[in-house]
Write a structure and sequence with these properties.
Blueprint: E1 4-8, H1 23-36, E2 41-48, E3 51-59, E4 67-74, H2 83-97, E5 102-108, H3 112-120, E6 124-136, E7 142-155
Parallel strand pairs: 4-5
Antiparallel strand pairs: 1-2, 2-3, 3-4, 5-7, 6-7
């Protein structure tokens, strides 16, 4: 049986994360790694044995006194196996270690599957937002991706 663990990611992990997104996403990961050095966020990997199969980070500045889960991603071939719940539990534990009692995330309105998982884990809708980020278009130029999102929160005990 495979061993499932989490750990903080470092620059040495970058070549192992190509599955998680395109070129702009890889640039974001580098930026998150830099920000993790200041303590304002924690960049975590979900590992099956020694292979990184999930990535996400906890931002401690986005919402005051709340740990915000950002850019959660479990490799497509590893989904629907309960690994997302394990990963989120580990992230919630990191938030507790900081003495915070709330965790928040934003999920695209069209990602019903993820919404159901978050609800099963105790997250409740708090509102909506419009989220934007940069990505490279087919022409190689940076474009702005815009999407509607649901803000969900959970109180930690």
């Amino acid at each position: 049986m495979a061993k499932i663990t989490t750990r903080k990611l470092s620059e040495q992990d970058l070549p192992l994360l190509e599955w998680s997104g395109g070129q702009r996403h890889q640039e974001y990961i580098r930026e998150w790694m830099e920000r993790s050095q200041t303590g304002e966020l924690i960049l975590l990997g979900l590992l099956e044995d020694d292979e990184i199969i999930g990535i996400g980070h906890i931002d401690f500045l986005m919402v005051p006194k709340v740990g915000t889960l950002v850019a959660l991603n479990v490799r497509e071939d590893k989904r629907s196996q309960g690994l997302g719940a394990v990963f989120i539990d580990a992230m919630e534990n990191e938030i507790r270690k900081r003495g915070l009692e709330s965790v928040e995330l934003r999920v695209e309105t069209k990602n019903v599957r993820a919404q159901k998982l978050y609800e099963q884990l105790g997250y409740r809708e708090r509102g909506t937002s419009v989220e934007t980020w940069e990505q490279y278009g087919n022409d190689g130029e940076i474009e702005i991706y815009t999407t509607d999102a649901i803000i969900m929160r959970k109180e930690l005990s």
